[in-house]
Every structure is written in structure tokens, then in C-alpha cells.
Amino acid sequence: MAWVIGIAVFVVGLVVSIGLHEIGHMVPAKRFGVRVSQYMVGFGPTLWSRTKGETEYGLKAVPLGGYVRLVGMYPPAPAGARPRRNGFFSQVVADARDASTEEIRPGEEHRAFYNLSAPKKVVVMLGGPVMNLLVAVVLTLVVAVGIGVPTVTTTVGNVTPCVPAAVTAEQSECGATDPQSPAAAAGLEAGDTIVAFDGVPVDSWDELSGAIQGAADETVPVVVERDGQRVELTMTPVPVARQVVAADGTLVVDAAGEPVTEPAGYVGFTPTAERRSAGVGPALKLTWQQVSGTVGIIATLPVKVADAASAAFGGGERDPNGVVSIVGVGQIAVAIADSDNAVVTQVAGFLSLLAALNVALFVFNLIPLLPLDGGHVVNALYEGAKRTVARVRGLPRPGPADVARMMPVAYVMFFVLLGVGAVLILADVLNPIRLT
Predict the structure, then answer these.
(1) What are phi and psi of 295, to 5 degrees?
(2) How many CA atoms lie within 13 A of 62 on its CB side?
(3) What is the DSSP string of 103-144?
(4) Selection from 349, 316, 346, 343 nearest residue 434 by Cα
(5) How far apart are alpha carbons 69 and 122 in whole angstroms?
(6) By CB atoms within 10 Å of each CB, which of 18, 80, 153, 163 scores lowest?
(7) Helix H segments across 33-106?
(8) Catalytic site residue from 22, 56, 103, 225
């Protein structure tokens, strides 16, 4: 059942994300007068379609993409262009021009996409990625502001009975000869909420944790709220070796790769966590972190793909922050559905996954190469720059950019993406990323 739920939620979320992406292209195109002959979500055989006005709307069998057919994407060959030459790529360019021209109805040449101004072309082509970004922002706001994010509180979850030799990611259990913890000695109990430490009120875990770590070997008063009553305790944090954590949450290591530790106060309890609204600002910051992180992954995509392939076929461990295929995203969705978490936590997990997917669609489609949206944006900017230079120099206005000449690049890019996708799918099947 978890598998069915996870895959169903993932497929529906993917289809909706793709559909909204294509709407982002279609709406401004129609607004600018371009005839949109088809709006399709998916590839392959058509499962359902209906024509409304001049546009056919439909769903196809393979939900791994979509498209809107904008009439007149490629202009005819420029006047004075050399005749066709033999060769595969030359034929590709010619076929793209012919197919684009055949779609234009007599008397509707002005409605061809290539006749739009450069700024309007940019708006149309950026409409899809920007729609994905907006979806990601909305989903992140729903999770962070509406549902809330797990936040560590000052309420005690468990009291550790002793002081371990070291507080590290690998060692935190008690040994037979370890002394009693200050928390246990002071009578701290699970469910107590610490409201003041050393005479200073504390409202967050960061405040309390910092105060504890800085009070090693000092006897301090502690006020807790227990069953609606305030109880005063006294405890003496003991110094222990604690691993140093960087600002980004990663552990600091020395030149030999060993964790760096420092003495810090320790009392011996684990806090509880509850969902709290993070606010709009932190939600937007989280989206920006996702965008910048995705940019970093795509910028190093060849290395990430090579690492995934090496782990898949060499038996190594996959990087949990590495790149995954559509299969890997589906595996994450199944893992969320199969978890023992509360329903609200699972819902938040699904929404966060879909937000990350839309961020990936936003960033990936901005790569400045055809057939991706970024490639069309670059061509539009090139066209606009040429026209600006001609206007400044008093020259005749250049015609539309001959985008069809870039079709060989689109073909090469298509096969590269197909190969990358195949490698990542194999990696996710043979050696999937472990979330825990």
C-alpha cells in the first residue's frame, strides 16, 4: 500500500508540475497573439484530448514531460541563404524550418512565434520555469508557514542517566563506570520545560544549548515548568569533549580527517521537537537555498553523474546529496509513504519533495542550450542585441534569429540528456540513495 500511495502521489505531483510549466508558456504566448495549436502533458500515445477554440488539450501516456506547440517557432531561411546541402544536420535544420512554416495558416503570418519582439519571446520562454519556481515557493510556504517545520524546544524528552566519555555522532551511550549526569542528579524529568537557566529566561533551544555549553563546572539555578507549576533545580554542567559543528551544520575535521572536538558543558538530556510556523521570511530563504543548491549540483553535473555511476557499478555508497533520476525521486516518495511518521509529517514530506522537484525543473530548464527553455531565451536575447546594435548604428532592422540553425545542438543535447537519465536510472535501481 505504501508503494502505491507513494508512486500515486509522486505521479500526480509530477503531472501537475509539468502541466503548470506548460501553462506558463501557453498563457503569455496566447496573450501576445501566438496561435497555440497543442497543449500536451506527457509524451507518447495520446490517452485523452479535447479541442477548445484553436488549441487541442490532452494527456499522453508517459508523464515525463510535456509541450505546447507554438506555431511558427522557426523562421524561414534568411533571404540570400545558401541552398540546402547534403548531410544529416543540414536536413534537420531544413525540416525544422519546413515544419514550422507548414503550421502557419494563410493570412496568419503575424501570429507566428518568430515575429514576436525579443522581450516577448523571453517572457514566453521564461513563463514555464518561473511557474515552477512559483509552485515551489507556494509549496514551501504551505509547509513552513501552514504545517510548520520541526523545531527543537526546551522541553525535556529523555534524561540521560550518566555522563558519557565523549559526546559525538558515534558515541553517546553510557558505560558501566560513567558518573551520574547532572540532569539526573538535579531531578530533571521527562516533560519538564526549562524556562530559565542561571537566572536568564530561555525561549529557544539555541539559547538554552549555548548557555549549558558555556557553563561547564559552574553550579547554576534552573527553573522548569512541571505540571503547570514552576520548580527550581540546581545543576552543575560537566565538561565533555563535543564535536565542533560548522555554521552550515557539517562536522569540522582536522587535516587527517578526524573530527575536531572542544570542551563544553553537558547536563544529560535530549529535547523534544514540535512543528512550529517558520514565517514567510525563513520559507523564502529555504527556497533560495534549494535554488542555489540545485544550481551547484547542475554546475557539477558531470562529476555527480560519474560519482553515481561509480557507486552503482563499483559498490560504493551513494552520496545522499547527489543527483537522482526520476526513479530516485519516486523511491523517496515511497520511503515517505512507508515511514512510521504521523500523517501530517508525511504530507509535509510529500509537499517538500514536490517543491524540490519544481525547483529542479526551474533551474534545469534555464540551462542556455536548446531544446531547453534557456536555449530559446539566449537566442531571443541575441536577436534583441542585434536589433539594438542595428538601431544605434542606423542600419536596417535585422530579421528574426535563425533558431533552426541550432537544431543540431538540440539533437546532441537530447541524446546527452537521454544518456545521463539512463545512467542515473541504473544507479537508482542498482544502488539507491539511503535516506537513513
Answers:
(1) -60, -45
(2) 7
(3) HSPTT-GGGSGGGS-HHHHHHHHHHHHHHHHHHHHHHHHIII
(4) 316
(5) 16
(6) 80
(7) 88-103
(8) 22
Known catalytic residue at 22 = yes
- Give 3-state DSSP helix, strand, coil % of the chain, rounded to 5: 50, 20, 30
CATH topology of domain 151-276: Pdz3 Domain (2.30.42)
**Backbone φ and ψ of 175, nearest 5°:** -100, 170
The three-class DSSP label of residue 157 is strand
Integer CA distances (angstroms), 77 to 10, 90, 110, 121, in order: 43, 12, 17, 19
Cβ contact 136:358 at 8 Å: yes
Q: How far is CA 334 from CA 16, 62, 196, 290, in A?
A: 18, 20, 43, 22
Q: Is 368 helix (H, G, I), strand (E, B) or coil?
A: coil
State the Cα–Cα distance between residues 200 and 196, nearest whole angstrom: 5
What pLDDT is recorded for position 170?
43
How far the first Cα of the chain sits from its last, in Å, is 21
- Per-10-residue mean pLDDT for the chain, 436 residues long? 76 91 96 95 92 94 90 81 67 83 88 93 96 95 90 90 62 67 91 92 90 89 92 90 66 70 83 87 90 89 86 77 84 83 85 93 92 92 92 89 86 88 87 74
Q: Nearest CA to 372 among 137, 128, 28?
A: 128
- Dist. CA 187–CA 93, nearest whole Å: 80
**Domain parsing of the chain, residue ranges:** 151-276
Exposure class string for 262-273: b at 16+ Cβ within 10 A, else e: eebbbbbbebbe
